[in-house]
Specification:
alpha+beta, 13 strands, Phosphatase 2c, domain 1, single chain, PP2C_BS, 5-stranded antiparallel β-sheet, metal-binding, protein serine/threonine phosphatase activity, metal ion binding, globular, 6-stranded antiparallel β-sheet, 25% strand, 300 residues, 6 helices
Length: 300
């Protein structure tokens, strides 16, 4: 992607979508639908893979929608893009399953709105909040975190949205790694300030919930819990891969450690399906006892 010259723009601290105007570059190819399960490591086009280790609780869902315009009559009304999400449920798998059935379709619906077409970042925020509002209010003590990666072929940008502590990183061709999301926990000073420290005990919201933003968990909204995502925009320029995973991976690995493993295996021509499985297996071996979901999207 040598035509990309504009550096990534980002706002890791924003509670709401950034005002940054997406950088417009020549369109990039999209991965094939089959790529999610059966990537071709030798392909120069995008490919992707997922590993989901159910662990003890089986509350995670990893989901891909590789052409949000499928079935649309006009690409002008729905720019080519692909969506990837990791939903990490807690308390049960009810909310994560609900999200896998509704969130992408709501995002797609907003992206296909022609009058006027919403910005990509606004569409992600609106979808998150509307889907959370549509959850049964009986989900008082069950919920799910979510990290969504939207690859926009038209603008050659990565748009991410997340609530909770699932995370996405991007590894670049120059060997650097960039975190694309924000971990919403009481350990984050801005989150601690937002929910107020008096409502945090033992590093948890009301002494029970380890995240400060999530879907569901309605009994915690009085303490400041919200489903408003942090949204960021980054250029796809020189990004080699994107890794999106639940906190079962990040509990035992840093961003840099994951990047070292992924980049080394990509250099050794290991297929990304095998790399994703390796990340799950390595996290288990290192002591993670949580459910683990890993999506790797190969760009270069």
């Amino acid at each position: 992607m040598e035509q990309c010259k504009t550096p990534p723009s980002q706002d890791q601290r924003a509670s709401t979508p950034m005002a940054t105007t997406p950088v417009r570059n020549p369109p990039l190819p999209l991965p094939s639908v089959d790529g999610f399960d059966f990537p071709d490591p030798s392909s120069s086009a995008f490919s992707s893979s997922c590993c989901a280790d159910s662990g003890k609780f089986a509350e995670n869902v990893a989901f891909a929608q590789l052409n949000t315009c499928k079935g649309e009559d006009s690409l002008d009304a729905c720019p080519p893009s692909s969506l990837y999400s990791v939903f990490d449920g807690h308390g049960s798998n009810e909310v994560s399953t609900f999200l896998s059935r509704t969130l992408h379709s709501r995002i797609t619906s907003l992206l296909s709105t022609s009058s006027p077409l919403p910005s990509l970042s606004s569409a992600l925020q609106t979808a998150y909040e509307e889907v959370n509002d549509s959850l049964p209010k009986t989900f008082k003590n069950v919920g799910s975190t979510s990290t969504t990666v939207l690859l926009d072929s038209t603008s050659s940008n990565i748009i991410t949205a997340n609530v909770g502590d699932s995370r996405a990183i991007a590894g670049s061709t120059d060997g650097t790694v960039t975190r694309l999301t924000v971990d919403h926990t009481p350990a984050d000073p801005s989150e601690l300030s937002r929910v107020t420290a008096k409502n945090v005990e033992f590093g948890r919201l009301d002494g029970a919930l380890s995240v400060t933003r999530s879907f569901g968990d309605f009994s915690f909204t009085r303490y400041g819990l919200v489903a408003t995502p942090s949204v960021s925009i980054h250029s796809l320029c020189d990004v080699r891969y994107i890794l999106c995973a639940s906190d079962g991976l990040w509990d035992v690995y840093t961003d840099e450690e994951c990047h070292e493993v992924v980049a080394r295996q990509m250099n050794e021509k290991v297929g990304i399906e095998r790399i994703a499985k390796t990340m799950c297996e390595a996290a288990k071996a290192k002591g993670s006892d949580d459910d683990i979901s890993v999506i790797i999207i190969k760009l270069i």
